[in-house]
Every structure is written in C-alpha cells, then in structure tokens.
Predict the 3D structure of the following.
Amino acid sequence: MLSASPEARALIAHVFQIEKKYQGMSRPGSKLQPDLEKAVRKVVSESRDRGE
Amino acid sequence: MKLISLTLEDFRQFRGRQTLSFAGEADRNTTLIYGPNGGGKTTILNAFIWAFYGTFTDDFEQPDRIVHGESWVRAADGDEVSASVEVVFEQDEKRYEVIRTVRGRKDRPEQHLTNSRGELRVLVTDRRGTEEPKNPSDLVDRILPERLHRFFFFNGERIENLTRHSAYKELAESTKTLLGLDVLTRAIQHLPQTARTFEKEVAKHGDSTTQELLSKRERLEHEGARLREELVAANAEATKLQDTQEAIFRELAEHSDARVFQTRRDAALRQRSDAENRDLELKRDLRRLITKSGFTAFTERIGEQVRTRFADLERNGELPTPIKEPFVRELLDRGVCICGTELTVGSSHRRELEAFVKTAGSPELESAWTRLDGLAARLSDDRVSFQADLARLLKERDEISKRVHEADEELSEVHKRLGSSDDTVVQGLEERQRGVSEQIATTQQRIGRVASDIRRIEGALDEVERDFNKRAKKDRESLEAQRCVEVAREAAAVLERVQDVLTEGVRLELNRRIAAPYDKISARRRVPELSPNFELRLYEEDTDGTRRLAPNSTGENTILALSFVGGLADYARDQHEGRIDETLKQLVEGRGGVFPVVVDAAFGNLDETYRLEVARLLPQLTTQLVMLLSKAQAEGTANKLAGHLGKRYVIVSHVAKADRDEELVVDGRAYPYRQVCDLSDERAEIIEVMT
C-alpha cells in the first residue's frame, strides 16, 4: 500500500503538471527547476498555514 | 496517426516527384508495394524515417547520397541540388504535412552534402487554418517519439533483434515512453535536484558540522551516480557479450559437425537456467517460511511447559478456580459473608476475606490460561508443519543443486568434444565462445561488486541524512527549508514506488496482449513473455504447468517480435482512446497513440507456413499497414492479404545491369517490374496497380 504525507501528495500533483509542461524539450532542467522549487515552497507553506 | 501520402522528390533512386497514397479504411487498411530487390523498397521505408527524424536505419547503404544520382550529375558546377520527402498524415482531426528537404551546392563530381539531415518543416491544418510550428522536431517527437519508430517502421528480417538480450533496455524504455510512464522517470530525476537546492538553504543557516554533512552527502551522491553509471555500462557489456555468445552458438548449430553438441548445450543451458530460476523461487519461499514460522523451532520446550503447567493446574483443581475474585469483592461490598457473618471494617473476618481476594481466581487469568493452552497446542502443530515445509524446500534445493551439477557436467563435456573437434572452424568457434563465457562470468562478478557498493553508499546516505536532520538549526527559515527537503525527497520516493508498480502493471498487461497474436500465428504451444527485466522470451509449458525457456529459432523469434509489436500497438491504441485503467489514465495522460505499421520484407526468414500466417495476421495487428514485398516474398502471401488490400503499387526498377525486362502479373494484368535502360536513365518509378 502506497502512503504519502499530504504535502508530498500535493507536490506530486504539481510535479505532473510541470513535467507535462516541459515534456518534449531536450534539456528542460534549467527552466523546470525554478517551477519545481516554487511548487515545493507552495505546498509546504500552505500546509503550515493550515497548521498541519 | 493515419498515413495519407508519401511524396519523394529526387530522393535516392526516385527521380522527379512521385507520390504514393495509402489505404486507410477500417476494412481495407493495407497498402502493398511490390518491388525488386535493390529497387527502392528499403528506400521507401527509410523515406518515412528520414522525413520524421533526419536519420536512416543502420543497414541503409550510402546514407549520405540522398539526392538522385543523375540529378546531381546533370547539375552544373555551382548549381543548387536538392531532394525532399513529404509525409502527409492525419491525427486527432488535424492534418500534418511533414516536409524534409536537403539542399547542397554542386562543387565536385561526386555527391557531397554538408548536412544530410536537411531542414524540417511541419504544416498543421485544422478547421481554423494552417500553422507552421516553430520547433517542428519537438512536434514530430511528441506524436511519434524517435526511440519508438523502430517498432512501427521496420525491416522484417531484423525485427527478431528485439528478442536479443541487449534489446531489454530499448524495450523497457520505449514501452515506458509510449505509454507515458517517462513523465514519472523525469520527475524522479528532477525532484532530488530540487531537494539539494533546499539543503543548501538549510546549510546556510547551520553550523560547520551541518555544512560538512552536506558536503559529505554531495560526495556520496556523486560516488553513487558514478557507480550507477558503472553498473549500466557493466550490464550493457554483459548483454553484448551474451549476444556474441548466442551468435557463436547459432553458428555452431549451423555446422553439421557441431549441431548435435550445440543442441545438447542448448538443452543443458536451459536446464541450468530453469534450475537457477527455481532455486531463486525456493530461496524466496525459504525466507518467507523462516520469517513467518522460524521461531517455532525454538518453542518445543516452552509449549510443553505451558501444557504441563495447565494440566497440573487442572489436576489440582486450580483451574477452573472454585472461587472467583469478583464474588469475594461482592461479599466485601455487601459487608456480609454467605455464612451470615458481619464483615465490619477492621474485623478479623474481613481481613481474612480481603487476603483471599489476592488468591481467588480471576476470570481474565483463567481465560488467558485457556488461550495460552490453545496456542501452545497450535504452536506444536505449527512447529511440525514448519519442519515438514523446511525439509521439503531443502530437499528440492538439493535436487536443484544436482540438476545444476548435471548441466555443468554436460556443458563441460560438450565443450571438451567441440574443443577437440577435427574441424578447425568448430574448434575456433568453441575457443571463442569459451573466451566470451569467461568474460561474461567476470562481468557478472563486477556487476555484483558494483551493486553491493551502491547498497553501501545508499546506507551511508541514509545515515548522513539522519544526522543532517538532527543537526539542522531550528529557526523558522531552517525548519521550513528542511521541510521542503523532506517533502521533495518523499515525493521522489513515492513516485519511484508508483513507477515500479505501474511498470509491472504495464508489463503484465502487455504480456496478455502479446500472447493473443502469438497464439494466432504459432502452431506450437508456447507462452511469449516480457520478463520482469523486459527481455522478450518464449517459454514452453508441460501439462503440469512446469515452464522452461523454449529453444530459439529465427522463425519463432520473428513471430515473437511481431507479436510484441502487435501487442504494443494494441495497448497504445487503447490508451490513446481512453480504454485503460482510470488511475493509469490520470498519471500518463496524453500518451499512447494510433500508429501505422510500415514493414519492409515482412516475412523475414520465415518458412512458408509462418509466412502465410503472418500475412493473415499483420493487417489485424494495426489500424493501417504498408507492406513492401518483392515478387518472391509476395508469392502465395498476397492472397492472404487480399481481403484487406486497399491500394497496390509496383516500384519499377530501371537498371542498366539487367539481362532482360521482367514483368509482374497482378490480377491477371502484367506490369513492368525490372526494365533494362541506359546507365544515365537509371531510376525507380512508382506505378499504381489498377483495381
């Protein structure tokens, strides 16, 4: 059975959207990393605000 | 993707502008193109590949001579010379025109192009009009990723290569790409990089030890990455060596002096491989048995003691106890004994009764004893059953070990016989295979060593991570950055597990879909399977369900590979049309697809029975089929395709080096097939067969 924290689950949803956005690009890393960092900060701060 | 047409302009032997239109109706989905050997069939297959990706198949001769020879010769010095291929197809209610053009300036007599990939343009037309995307290569790769083209545009004589050891990586990666699982792979690669960014943030706030831990972590990760690369290289080397060894085995099998020994060796190798696989299963069963019931081996005395004590208690009348504790408490609460004596506080009667509370039987204790006695009895049964299972597994492992030993002896005997053969060719081949075999063993040892080093590094990384988490400063910024690290790493770990589960699900589903076409073609009772590490294998089954690797033959391998292509196309189509599991659909949205199959020399090296069956089945494997066949290859098989044929063409080869003109008769009508001409007029010409 797969289990994950609420933040990790929320992050995975963001990650899929980001990866699909850059799909097909030969070297997406430099553009994609800032989006991923933003997504991680977002899920962590939202979780903190909800008091989780 | 539904192919509409292919237009060649001064491309290779096709002079001028020539167009083929393709059949694409559901019941008439097949286009058959006849052509003599060397006449241009392989060029047509390669025209698709070049138009889409700017490359050719590995076996395509003189790939740098793209412009029609005579067009180059006739051009004056300094003139621009060009060739182009245009593929028109439809997909998702859009029409795509893929046009690749190569241009060069004639500066010498022999053909010389500085960029044989040429330039790609794609025009996309829908109801709103026509657009030309800025990055056409990305667009083409999204529609049919380059690594997948060899499953849909291929030469039937080489498709059996998919069954080689070295193909596993390509099969695994291509399957994941086609079914959209590489979104996961990319996410798993990218998230740790994100985590590292946050780690640096944590370290910025931390003391020198925290920073040291971070450096140590980076070193370990670097070392881990290096080892993983080494493992990939070692695995690639091992599979290459296995392919070489298999090729030597095939050569030996074709040699009359060696055939019988090679057959014995094949059987011994299969016996060894079956035995080793069974041994792995037995080891796994042993581990499970010991984990679940191993403790019972140490409970013989405990069980006996419990049972003896329980029997003693029963015998002495202590169980069940004559007086229960709640009854004594009730008397104390009431303050009167059953004999009528007052139990006033501080009286000697009350004190006696209070002391009795401690010795009176507790119902809970009684029930615990009863349960314990039951468990002790079961423990004894479990121990007996554990010992029996253990003995059975160990006995079977002994038998397996004997089978491996027998196989090794047989292999050694075969090696001795072939090594001392009177035939020097056989001797030489055997010597080579021995060398390769030793190299395989050395490489396998290296793989084991590297894998163990990787496990060590991963353990060290876990330790560093724990220390790092403990030492990180506890101010708000650090805590938040630390949480970001944890969340990014956790998401990566979850996705890795998801990927494993999905890949296994996809593999099992593919196996089901590969089996269906295989059963239709092959008369033999065999089970095709994509193994857990994505090797395409064929097993034969005994009536009792025992499985072993089936002996290889080119024919069977070709059918196996074609069945894989059919299964993959079927799965990709269902995925594209949304007929797959809902969870999978959400994760891999936007992938899959409907792809045509374009196949040159579809029947490879198959004998007639198989050829007929493949001809019958191929149109059913895919929504659209383009087959390129010579007159000899088409013999007998064209009838099997008749019900599916929508278009037919003949490539007429105009060549100087032919003795005489040759014709091809289709439906009673004669068409030119090979025509003698002057050297300066050599070319391939496409003509449509009349219906």
